[in-house]
Structures are given as C-alpha cells and as structure tokens.
Amino acid sequence: MDNEDTKYEEWIKAVDDVLENKVSLSHSCLRDREWFAAYEAGETPEQAINGLCGDPNNVKAFMEEELYG
Length: 69
Prior knowledge:
The protein is mainly α.
C-alpha cells in the first residue's frame, strides 16, 4: 500500500468515525457513494458526508434519504 492509499484509508476511517457516532453505521453500510471522488476533491469527511448523504445530525432525514432517496 502506498502513501496515497494510506491517506485515503485514514480519511475513510474518519468518515466512519463520524457516521458511527451520529447514525451508528459505517460508509460500507450505506448505498454506494462517490467517497473516493470526495476525497480526491479535498473534501473533509464531514463535507463528504453532508454532500453525499445529508446531515447526520438530523438522523430522521438522513435515514429517510438513505432508505427512500
């Protein structure tokens, strides 16, 4: 694994930390998203979650989007 792979793995772990804390799920439990594209665009984990999934602070709306989106 090269340095760029390691950086992405650290970034996606940060995504999972936020998701698990807010909605008790990891990125792999959600529908497919463009996580790597968000990483490459320089988004923070929080920006990526909000842009790709919605606001995890509003669990009801987040899960409705995930389930019915």
